[in-house]
Amino acid sequence: MNRDQDMNRWGWTGDKVIRRLVISVLILSLLAVPVSSVLADTSGQQSDALASDAASRSAVFDQRMQQALEKAEAVILNETDFPIEGAVGFAKNRTPLPKGFREKLADRIMDAGGKFNSLSDHVRISLGYMAAGGDINRIGSIDLHALLMNHAGLERAGVPELAEAYLMSWYYHPTALNRLEWYPDLIVYRLRERQTKEGGWSARDSGPGDIRTTAKVLTAIGSPDEPSSKPALDWLQTKLEGSRTSDLETTAVSDVVIALSSIGLDAAAFSETGVQLMDTLLGRQLPGGAFAEVEDGSASMEATVQAYLALTAYKLYAEAGDRLYASLNHPIPNKTRVHVEGPEGTIAEGWMELGSNENLVEAAAAFLKKSGVAYTTRVSEHGALFTSIGGVTNGRYGGLDKWEIAVRSIGNWYILKDDLIYYSDPEEVLLYYSDQTALVDHIQIEWKYENGQIIGGTPRADTPFTLTLKKATRQFGHMAVSSGIQVSLGGKTAVTDKNGRVSFPGLKPGVYELTVSSYRQGRAPLLAKRTVPFPVSSPELSSFTDAGKVSKWAAYDVASALSEGWMQGVSPGSRPQLAPKRAMTRAEFVVMLLRVLREPANPRSSRSFADVPGGRWYSGEISRAVKLGIIGDKLRYFGPGELVTREEAAVMMANALGLQPLGSPERVPFKDTAGLPESSKKAIQILYEQEIMKGEGRLFHPEQTLVREEAAAVLNRLAQLMPYREI
Fold it and tell me: One Pfam family of this protein, by short name (predicted)?
């Protein structure tokens, strides 16, 4: 029997696999995005090559099965200590989980720092948290996927634990920088090594095959392209046909149903002469809805949960071709910077929330609508594309000029082509009017150190520097852009030479806005306008006369804030001072927060508050903070000169993050926040969970003023959570 005949025996066709492989390759080539990003779009899904086509699927999830599922679900829901394993079934059946379930799991995860001695506990809690609507990659600073792939227990794990770990191995964040010791392929290799000669897997390192263990492995890695699948199915069928119904426990029957349903095989028709899986499963349900582990046994919660999951898996297979453990994670949408650049200037700019593998045109259209910008689209085979934005219609100049979309990821631009408009976790999205218009991919910075050495990177204060603008070609890497490109920075404008270079005199420390543009009369721009934050470093910490007054715990954060240009001295000259213990005003904190966010001041600031007149050194930043929702606009007065309290700083930073609390309010230990407004308590909880503001034991000190070194520390922690914007 050849391989195609083997595959046909289980309802798998070689042509189907090849056809889907060709389609996948075409999609990758057309989209022109990194393979890692496309892989990340699976969101934990196993290869769908095993799922039978809807037209050929013969499985029927009948009324008897539905009633059994509902009765079991009611039993599980009434359990005082809700079993975490059941959460996956509730999620797939769209049944609400007990109130506070996700928050309690988040508490448990954060209390443990995401580290669990048992691999099974780690996987069980992770699956439950995802099923409850959580994101396992972003629980405060915890990434459960990375911690699992670096778990010391994987090296000595048995087959059941390795199979469980594989279920989670694809739920990684595409831009995570964690170094991982284990990867999906390595887990598969270890599982293949341990398959018995007969085709099954043993629950221990040696010994005969075990039905539950074999089913767990098939649930994890089973596919027509996986060489271990066919002998495992043969072994499993032989075991079932040689067994009596009374020989098998309900949990074993359930695991087999889950495995077969997950890989696209009908559990009801799997065994012709032996154990009839679905009939056996239904026969174990007791009158009250619970399941017994054995024939004529008493109610068992473990058996009830596994049977419920098996019924859910079979229902998913029969009705939707879905899998029980696929698409569980709920990534927190990223805040993505958006620029809409027309042929004569910027039409709109701001932020939008973009989820994993989201349709970019739909997301961009929602952003334009929210911004009050008119647009039109045309519907194509694969979705919609923009035909006009802000009154600018494709073909405006009589040629092939049109609107295009580009995304920036890991320091590179990617132009989306051929109507394929899905992408995961971009750092920026650019809508621009183009006629072979180039994109600035990189800006190289060079300046001369005191000893004459040429240095790259963030320039020091009052030090002249040179910028080289580069565009990308996929064949040759970065190439310098053309001459005559306008570059504006710090109130000055210069034009690039033939090598794409431009020089600027030194600037004072801070975070500036760098703008690159090249508009052409009667044509689309030569280069799409690019606006990026441009930091200029303050003098290093040791150069300040009062550097010794900085607390040891704050020294690193203060040095970082100076290096990034967020923090500056208070008295320039030959004896500069930093004043680390000086309390900050509300205006000073807003300005520093906007620098951390790399958000430019609003140059045309409107009068947001009666006590914030235009033209003050902080007016533009306060106006921008109102626009971004960091400061509320309902009050008449802002109090720019008043000292900022820890409570006020917490609220502004939480608004900047745009996150929601993860755990329960009871986990927050502070006893001096009970009388605060709910919005303040929520903000403090968010910052506590994200480890930005930790308080002092059981005290948060909400009314205490924030001093400069404390501001440097909390804002440096905040910066680690913000989207990175590379020059």
Answer: SLH
